[in-house]
Each structure stands twice: as structure tokens, then as C-alpha cells.
Amino acid sequence: MNTLWEFLSMQDANVRFVTFGSILLAASSAVVGCFTVLRKRALVGDAVAHAVLPGVCLAFMLTGEKNPIVLLIGSFITGWLSLVAIDVITTKSRIKEDTAIGLVLSVFFGIGVLFLTSIQHSGNENQSGLDKFLFGSAAALVGQDLYTFGAVAVMLLLSVILLYKEFKLISFDLAYARTIGLPVRRLELLLTTLTVLAVVVGIQSVGVVLMSAMLITPAAAARFWTDRLGIMIVIAATMSAFCGAAGAFVSFTAPAMPTGPWIVMILSFLAIFSFIMAPKKGLLARYLLQRRIRRQMMRENILKTLFLLSENTGDYQHSYSRQQIMDRRKLPLLKMQDGLRTLTNQGLVLKSPAGWALTESGKKEAQRVVRLHRLWELYLTEYLQVASDHVHEDAESIEHVLTPELEKRLEELLDYPTADPHQTTIPKST
Fold it and tell me: In this structure, which topology does domain 363-413 adopt according to CATH?
């Protein structure tokens, strides 16, 4: 980032404006993209991104010049037409929405490429740079282009700020929004319009082909870091703005490198990092949680086995060897040894030359697990009419996740039972 700032400080005002314009376009697209992702409309954004190309080409063919306002209007019209086409195909035929999106995307983009090829062979000297709409180019954002697209980007951000609560409500609970009298249809129409505008202003930086990535990737990555919409929007906008600045930096320092692919590539790296390293929802966090749960289940199974071995005699301080534990319950040897070591360190079992025995606290914990197991077996037989010889496996899993609140509820439903379906005593609560 310091290198980028030094680079900007050495350039003229136009270069700085272009870079800041790329940042603004990227951030505004990411903000609108958050609502697109939450409303499960990601593929629609992709269709609109490809559908704006024929609008850009038609606007140029009709006027013969690259007026940014005219190009914006043309791309907005065809973007809207693509949404209308998707809606008509979905409602008037048996074609599903995903199929309709694929049809509209390919047809509109194909027409756009056809128009662009025609323009390239027309000999119009003003066509120079028009092909940048395919992959984007920060260098093409100059003068009037920057002011026009920048103004639209600011309008997008202000619209989201002013209608944040309404957009949040229709994104999470459409039925409640209708119940309290919100103009849901108008709000959906406005949000769709903002999505089209976000695509229109963003194609100058990343191009038609990759615009959907600019719209969706920051929001998808930010979703891994938080469950709050406000924070998600800030993270997505910050991430996208950084990538926009980095992509513009690469485009300026290496003119042969198009802006769009670089912005999307950096965004992709940040997204992959988020998917893996996010503290609660990332793959690493989920793996560590699953491993912790598996180890906890192993320790509870060991405690339960020691309790069952001693249940008939009532001598819970009796020590049992590793082989005796294995004979009672088949456990992976290495994991069982690790579990015994951890339980010993926690003071739940006591190691002696004869083997391992439950301590008083270990007995209470084992008794809790056995109690939950037998309560659940009884619940399955009495309320779900499951045969008593088919309830053990299910109880083996559920016993590790039942909370004290559910345990109390089970007791009340079963009228404080003393025996399970196999007429085995249910231990009392400690």
C-alpha cells in the first residue's frame, strides 16, 4: 500500500482521479452485491453484466461517439431488458430461473460480441478503446467518464445508506416487510435498478466478462467474517476498494495488463483466504471445531465405558486395564490413549498400575452422559414409537449434544422416569 501511495504522489492529478474512481466503482459494486448475495440473486448479476454489452455497442452505433452518459443509458436499457426477459421466460413458461438466466446471458452476450465485431470493421475512428468494455481498463477512465461513472457510484452508495433498513428487511424477511406495510414491490424494483447501475458503472473497470465477480466475490468473502449486515457491507466495500486500487496500480505500471483480471484475481485470493481463515465459518475453524467435538466425544465415551464397567458392582473406584476398556467398547487405540491422557490431566480419571479408575468428578460426568443416553432411548420408544432394539445408535450420537435445558424438558415429558426401555436404571441428576 505504501508503494501505491508513493506511485500516486508522483503522478499527475488525472492519474490519481482515475485510481480513486476505480476504488469508488469497486466499493459501490460490492455494497450492492451484498444485497444481491443475500437475496440469492447472484446469477442475475452475471446475466446483467453480460447483457450490457449490446447496449454499449448500440449506443455507440447510434451516436458514433463514446459519450459516457449515452453509453451508460444504452447499457442500462439492455441490462433492464435482460431482467425483463428472465422474468417473462420464468413466469410464462416451464423453464426454471437458472435455465432462463443461462439463455438470456448467452443470447445477449452473443449479440453484443456481434455488434462489437461489426463496429471494429466499420472504420469509425472513435471506436478506439470500446473493446475495453470486455476486460476493463483503468486508463480509459478519463475526464468526463470519471465524473459520470463516479457520480452514479456515489448515488448507489447514498441510496443504500438512506434505505438501509428497508433493503435489510426485504433481504431477510420479505413476508414481515409486507405485513408492516412496506412497498415491497417498489423496493425490490429499486434494488434491482441499483444492481443494474452497479454493473453498468463497474464494467469500465473490470469489463463485462468479469463484472459478476466484482459484484459477488467481495460479498461472498465478507459473509464468512460476520453475521451482521452492516459489518458485512463495510468488509466487502473495503476489500473491493483495495482490489480496485491494486488493479489500477498494475494497469498503470504495466499497460499491457488489463485492469479487470487483476482486480478479480486479487479479489479471488482474498476470497480464498476468507474461505479458509475466517474465525468462525472458515474451513480451518470448522475443521478445528469438528476435531474438538470428536475428541470431546471420545473422552465422554471413555468415561461412559468406565461407568458401565463398574455399574453392576457399584465400585466406581475400581481400576480397569486398557484391554478391559477395549473389550467393553471398541475404540481406536491411539485416540483412546490420547483421551485417557487428557482425562487424567483433567482429574476425571486416576491412573494406577492396574489401569484407570473414575475419580469423583469423573463419575459425575460419566453419570450425566449415561443418563442422557437412557433418557433419549426412552423418548424414542415412547414418543416416536421406535423399537427398543433400534434406539441405541441414535442415542450414542445425541447424548453428546443434549443441553441441560433439553435434559430438563425430556424429564418433564417422560414424567421423571427411573428406567430406560431395557429396564436399566437411569442415573439420577447430579
Answer: Diphtheria Toxin Repressor; domain 2 (1.10.60)
Taking CB atoms within 8 Å and a gap of at least 24, the contacts of 110-115 are 111/54, 112/50, 112/51, 112/52, 112/53, 112/54, 112/55, 112/56, 112/57, 112/208, 113/53, 115/53, 115/54, 115/57, 115/58, 115/61
Q: Are 90 and 96 in contact (CB under 8 A)?
A: yes
CATH number, domain 18-281, options 3.40.50.12780, 3.20.20.60, 1.10.10.10, 1.10.3470.10? 1.10.3470.10
Contact indicator for 116, 135 with CB cutoff of 8 Å:
no
Cα dist. 249→151, 153, 206, 217 in Å? 22, 20, 13, 20
Rounded to an integer, what is the distance from CA 212 to the centroid of its chain?
A: 16
CATH 1.10.60.10 range(s) for the chain read 363-413
C-alpha cell at 40: 440469492
**Per-residue pLDDT at 50 exceeds 70:** yes
Q: Report the relative pairing of strands 349-352 and 355-358 from DSSP bridges.
A: antiparallel
**pLDDT tens readout for residues 284-327:** 999 999 999 999 999 999 999 999 999 888 888 899 998 999 88
> 10 falls in which pLDDT band (50, 70, 90)?
very low
Rounded to whole angstroms, how far apart are CA atoms 369 and 360? 15
**Model confidence pLDDT, tens digit, residues 184-198:** 888 888 888 888 888
Q: pLDDT band at residue 269, thresholds of 50, 70 and 90? A: very high
> Which residues are CB-contacts of 420 (< 8 A; sequence separation ≥ 6)?
374, 375, 377, 378, 426
Which residue in 378, 171, 134 sits closest to 260, CA to CA?
134
pTM here is: 0.77
Provide CATH code, domain 285-358. Answer: 1.10.10
Range with the poorest average pLDDT among 90-99, 159-168, 345-354, 357-366: 90-99
Cβ pair 10, 142 in contact under 8 A:
no
The mean pLDDT value of the chain amounts to 84
